[in-house]
Amino acid sequence: MISDYFTSNDIEPRFICGNSLEVLKEFPDNCIDMAMTSPPYWGKREYVIAESIGLEKDYNEYIEKMLSIFEQVQRVLKINGSFWLNIGDSYLNKNLLGLPWRVAIRMCDEQGWILRNSVVWNKVKGAPDNSLDKLRNVHEMLFHFVKSKKYYYDVSAARKEPLKAKVQNGAVVSATGVTGVRYKRQIELSTVLTDEQKQSAFFELTAVLDSVRNGEIEDFRMIIKGQQRTTHSNSTKVSGRAKELETKGFYFLKYHPDGAKLGDVWDIIPEDTQGRKLHFAPYPADLCRTPILTTCPANGVVLDPFSGTGTTMAVAYESGRKSVGIEIAQEYIDYAEERIGINEQNQGFLWSVYQAK
Prior knowledge:
By secondary structure, the chain is α/β, with parallel strands linked by helices. The protein folds into 2 domains: 9-158 and 261-351, Rossmann fold, CATH 3.40.50; 166-255, no CATH class. 32% of the residues lie in helices and 20% in strands. The protein has helices spanning 2-7, 20-24, 59-76, 99-111, 181-189, 195-213, 240-248, 285-295, 311-318, 330-340, 349-355; strands at residues 14-17, 32-37, 77-87, 91-92, 95-96, 114-122, 139-146, 166-168, 171-173, 219-224, 250-255, 265-267, 301-304, 322-327. Strands 1-14-13-2-3-7-6-12 form an 8-stranded mixed β-sheet, sandwiched between helices. Strands 4-5 form a two-stranded antiparallel ribbon. Helix 3 (59-76) packs across helix 4 (99-111) and helix 5 packs antiparallel against helix 6 (195-213).
């Protein structure tokens, strides 16, 4: 029955009430395009179900449970699939445990996951902190894991809205105000560049300005020998840019016309829980959008093994993707289905399938 949903045209999210590990064991291999989740944090909250993950006396037991579930996530992911994991840290006897990295490193070392990005989620406002001997905690980690070196990734969905170049008084002005006048002056007055290098620099600068004018690139920076610092490294042994600067006298950094790629620090305010029927974790919809749009194909299936009140499923549905959420608390599933507007005929659909086994 679950395979029927994967191959149908229906994109309404499906929820399964049960233990994530046991439910995932019933999934076939290589059936999920992308997974994203925020599991219960260790030692942080009282959860609806007394046996919930996060209530272990020892954090090592918590890590072992996480690894068991993520091993199943890896199995059900397609070979070109991605897994995004948002996991919070905890203190024990005043010691910050580093739980996110403990989990991530063991996933790579013991299960063979490839870690592509560690994103810092800056929660901007964060929660009140009355501690008098430490800074306020306002960030969490979001890890992007893949199953193999070749995986689905739509980089265009990871770009910011580009600024636009303009023509002002007959001169091309880039999105950040670069006209080329300063670069031309630096080339002209350079005592480091040879005459041949100066001529080449003038020629290529004109071509780059034309590319800005035509919308082929959004913006650029010119690195000129003796004027600007080499990006990354000055060593010609380890940096191709340094070698280019040494032999050619200059190089360009060109910015994509669709905008710059997002960085690995995201400023996203947590979910507003005021006025909600249930109090749930501050896992916001904005945290899910870029991962889903970049690493799940348009006709793909999203999995959340700790779906809670359905944020991942809501964003997947909004973006036209199928999704399956696993949640141990039926109360949360009921709220998620109401929140998303699941048809009555589909409510509890997959759970009834698993009950019948």
